[in-house]
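Weekly structure sync, notes
Attendees: PL, DS, HV (note-taker this week)

Item 1: LuxR family transcriptional regulator
DS walked through the input record. Source organism listed as Paractinoplanes ferrugineus. Sequence as pasted into the shared doc:
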Amino acid sequence: MGQRIATVTSARGARIAYAVAGAGPPLVYVSGWLGHLELSWALPAERAFFEALSDGRTLIRYDKPGCGLSTAAPGGADGPGGADGPASYTPADELDALEAVVGAVVGAAGSPRFDVMGISLGAPVAVAWAATHPETVARLVLYGGWPRGADVAAPAIQQHVLGLVRQHWGLASDLLTDVFAPDADAATRTAFARYQRESATAEMAGAMLAMAYTIDVLDLLPRIAAPVLVVHRDRDRAAPLEQGLRLADGIPHARREVIPGRSHLPYIGDTRPLTRVVREFLGLPKKHRGAAPTLTPRQREVAALIAQGCTNREIGERLGIAERSAEAHVERIRYRMDFRSRAQIAAWYAATAGAD
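Item 1 (cont.): predicted structure, written out as tokens:
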């Protein structure tokens, strides 16, 4: 199951990258803090989660302005490798990006109403969209969210984390990986920490985290008219369960589901309870298709060398084959894994420690 990536320019001038996978009625996915469409597709656990959502749905994801493959509006951040990030990031930036993607994909398909799923910070953003665009939302799924960011952690903790992100992004990404994904294996944790750093600059990450701590949609909760499912893990280390329950209590007739687990990231830990309840709520069979693609032993050798930063010529020299043969192996890996870049191959290899 592949994903197709394209871009659209928002009303504010941001260039928003979005990915489409699967087939069926549209499901717009509003991600959490940071993201990168290509690297997330290379992490086996995250990709498996997306494939579970896209079996029977057209899953639409996007990178936030200034993150991953997206760039911010003029005067803002250019994301990794670009200009310094903005001094602030607001819910208006989030909704601007979401509106652009909805118009480009859902609007073009002629679907007046669609399902929306908000994860972590994406949950209050999805609430804001559903409250202000009620005619567009068929069903709303909220996972690991909160209605008021100021209540997620004590002020002293917020300031400590923000300062660490802005001043020591490498150390902060490792720390936040421990908070977000305590159940991940060592290889996945290492890959995710690197994935965060490659998704955004320290300035951009800090600005978005600051917004996560200040966003407030409490007053919007009673305005939600669509059927709503609120899911939260009982021992979530990043967003306490009480925040998810508060979110559900404020929305008329919202269905709440508390599932076991302590990882905040939806694709880490036992994902089956989450995917089952979400698919059931969306009117899909609880079971879904999908199997992780595999590589041949030779392709795994090539992937390992790519992860080491080897060029095609160096791969050929190391394996005793012609440079053109090495190039052909790389292209077969990209085709087989539905990857667009060598960076994705390297990220996949790091996350799996060389195993399929």
